[in-house]
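Hello,

I think I submitted the manganese (II) ion job twice by accident. Can you confirm which output corresponds to this input? Input:
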Amino acid sequence: MKSFLVPPQISFGPNSLDYLGTLQGERAMLVTGGSSMKKFGFLDRAEKHLTQAGLSCKIIDGVEPNPSVKTVLRGKEEMLAFKPDWIIAIGGGSALDAAKIMWVFYEHPELNFEDIIDVFSIPKLRNKARFIAIPSTSGTASEITAFSVITDSEKKIKYPLVSPEIIPDIAIVDPEIPATMPPHITANTGMDVMAHAVEAFVSINASDYSDPLALRAIEMVFEYLPLAVADGKNLKAREKMHNASTLAGMAFSNASLGIIHSLAHKIGGELHIDHGLANAILLPYVIQFNYQAAAEKFSVIEKTLGINSLANAIRELNQKINIPANFKDIDWLEITADYFEEIVDRMAQNALQDPCTLTNPLQPTVGDMKELYRNSFYGVAAQ
Ligand code: NDP
Ligand code: MN
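Support: Only one job matched these inputs. Its output is below.
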């Protein structure tokens, strides 16, 4: 038996933020990142809607990129003091992920972080509060997923926490919010969407339920990402990318991912490369590696798009949105070939162990992972 889980409500399109004005409740805890949501006025707008609906509001801000256990525990204490019946996360994947786990500890203050690391170990939520997620990037799809990624900064380990309990009750996918992203964040997070959709479509856990969502998301990224990068004010392109992110999220939250993500997680951690950028560079190399193992699926994508080679089409797309073809060409990345050779073994071993490797269409060896790293670092086109 398989199940397909998504939030019970997705409100989308221009002005969907207004939905907050219809909420019934007493206290809303808003959780956000650094400063962008305040700066662009979305936090104030959210607060205004909630206040007009008769809720009192409090804000937890300062959630950092790659949020830490410490930040989550700070949020837990604030929630225990304020006793919200709604938790409303507004921001990038980092703010949404942190808020999800603050919620877990608010509902179950007796738990420690170690108690919730194992898959499905999070106990029942919604005894105290319900959860609304409002993404400000079009990428991670945390508003839809059963995942949260929290970093133990002392041990320097990123933990992907998984449970259907942390799927939000309501996702608000309002395209005006990501419209303030600068071009490079638009490009990187947009290629994260592409990686989610492609990996979910060829995953060994793909299904009749996830396939149409993934395929449509791929089409939408090809069509609208270059437009959103070229002109951030193109609201149609922003809306299509925001919806594509959520569609791809519905697909990968259920079908899981593959080794683009395994490889990206480890090289991102070692070299501090943004997640979406790492995915974008790895995509064509991994597609070529996986092609024969999922040839039918890849040819469905190619027929749908009317192209001969998905890998080449992604190379062209990367070029259009100013993403380099290989890691060595990232202009700010100052590492020598010697240093890369020093870390490549460790990265390959760790990437093989990543949970995303399990659903890749082809089971790689550690040698395969090393070769994929080398090819994508130096720019050798795999055949
Ligand atoms: P972040 O939430 O980390 O935000 C990155 C940067 O973008 C921040 O500086 C943020 O600023 C800024 N920003 C966000 N929105 C806007 C906007 N509308 N306008 C201008 N600037 C903006 O980025 P991501 O969304 O890419 O999330 C990455 C995190 O999500 C990682 O921790 C990753 O591991 C995790 N992740 C979670 C998944 C899940 O299913 N839960 C799946 C994949 C990844 P500021 O802080 O000031 O708001
Ligand atoms: Mn991703």
